[in-house]
Design goal:
By secondary structure, the chain is of the alpha+beta class. It has ten helices and twelve strands. Strand 1 and strand 2 form a beta hairpin. The radius of gyration is 21 Å and the shape is globular.
Amino acid sequence: MFNGGAYRSRTKKGRMAMEYKFFAPGRTELAGNHTDHQNGRVLAAAVTKGIHARVAPNCINRVRIRSRGFADIDVNLMDLDVHPEEFGSSKALVRGVACAMFDLGMELGGFDAEIHSDLSSGSGLSTSAAYAVLIARVFSELYSGGKLEPVAIAGIAQQAENLHFGKPCGLMDQLACALGRAVYIDFSTKEIVPVNADFSRMGLTLCLTDTGGSHAGLDTSYARIPADMRYIASFFGKSLLGQVDPAEFRARKWDTADRPVRRAKHFFDENERVVMMRDALDKGDGETYIRLMNESGRSSEKYLNNIVTSTTNDRKLENGLELSARLLEGKGAWRVHGGGFAGCVQALMPSEFFPEYKNNMERVFGVEKCTELKLGK
């Protein structure tokens, strides 16, 4: 499935060429903050915004992409090596996806594409994962008969982000983008279950506010979180916290002043909370979901400590959370969204209160910085 269609269009020389339309959605994390890389549980959802492409195959073994506002991309598919100078670029994602597919023995070929995105920079909707999923879908449809399943597409996209893009991420973002809807994922058991995340039926509105903080220079801050968690796992002879019995962790006496211990506590509490939040969504129990979402947010702040880092001392995210607390206390929920240290505040509230919340957040962080999220179904 490539979420698009084929149609004929006339080339500049007047010949008819087959073109295809593709789409890959962005994603939002609902629960499971920094649990995926430890084989934990997550709730994630695709959103209705995403990246669109018009694509035509070519016969020159190159991928050439135009995207408004960005430099053209030209990738030679005969060169699939990692290029460190490309880290963080769309070009790296194209090369990385092609490399991952080649490693799987998939057919490859060139194409020309025009891309436009509804996902603005800093939107917190995982643009890189959506882009990698989109490119994988294009290769699969044009040259492999569209036979790749969404989970395989997600794995290809993750490899591209990890190796070529230079982002040591887990698999949550790519799975949500590839599956195109709200899902519960247990990375330990490989269970993937659709979830009925219909906030509108509960009279609630979910939104993200981009607080304007930059993720530049935060690689070491992000990397310390899985490293700290693996350190605690090593006390039990395991490599990941998802392999450790929570009861055994809680039975030990730990120094809770130690950052790795606090982060491990967050993991075990959050991992259990994900299941309860999933069940609340399926039941349409907004009151319980709001309570648990707030517990998740406070755990990230107090134990995971992914709000402010001494690397940049950027406090925009912290300010967004504090303002949300003042606006939503007793009404809704607020939490850090995604990796943290910069970026977005996710909030949930009765729909009638959203215009007031949006107005107050945008007064501080800028016009159109607070966006209602509509989830894919």
